[in-house]
Write a structure and sequence with these properties.
- Helix 1 runs antiparallel to helix 2, helix 1 crosses helix 6 (120-131) and helix 4 packs antiparallel against helix 5 (86-101).
- The chain is built from 6 helices and 2 strands.
- The chain is globular and about 45 Å long.
- The N and C termini lie far apart (38 Å).
- A two-stranded antiparallel sheet has the order 1-2.
- The protein has 140 residues and is mainly α.
- 31% of the residues are buried.
- Strand 1 and strand 2 (84-85) form a beta hairpin.
């Protein structure tokens, strides 16, 4: 079975897993989200990335808001969606959110999350971007 993935979605996974550039994740996923009629699954993925971006930049409350909003959207989808292990990303995001909620009493260092890719085609497309990175999108 061949699934065709949107170029912007492939870039999102690349920026999330490889480049760890959560700002670019936001840029490409927002573009895809708008193109696809504001699909909540795309918005939830975008919000996980922005939650990480906020925490990396010291904005714990912003990160809590984004992870909460992301989980509210992502909980409506199956364990595997869009070629990724969405269940694992939700579990990892819940753990992050729990740590964020207690960060004042128990500070923790920022750490990246990974999107586990389940589909070999998506894996190959992301690997192609790793070998030939895309140009970052222009800031508006």
């Amino acid at each position: 079975m061949t699934t065709s993935y949107d170029r912007l979605y492939i870039e999102f996974v690349y920026y999330f897993n490889v480049a760890r550039d959560y700002f670019e994740c936001h840029e490409v996923m927002e573009e895809l989200w708008l193109e696809e009629g504001r699909h909540p699954l795309y918005q939830g993925l975008l919000q996980v990335a922005v939650g990480l971006y906020h925490y990396r930049n010291g904005n714990t409350s912003g990160s809590i808001k984004l992870f909460t909003a992301a989980l509210n959207k992502l909980d409506n989808y199956p364990e595997d969606a869009l070629g990724i292990d969405l269940g694992r990303l939700r579990d990892d995001s819940r753990l992050y959110l729990n740590k964020l909620a207690h960060a004042e009493e128990e500070p923790f260092a920022f750490y990246d999350l990974d999107i586990l890719i389940l589909d070999a085609e998506l894996e190959a497309l992301v690997e192609e971007l790793r070998l030939h990175p895309p140009e970052p999108h222009e800031e508006d």
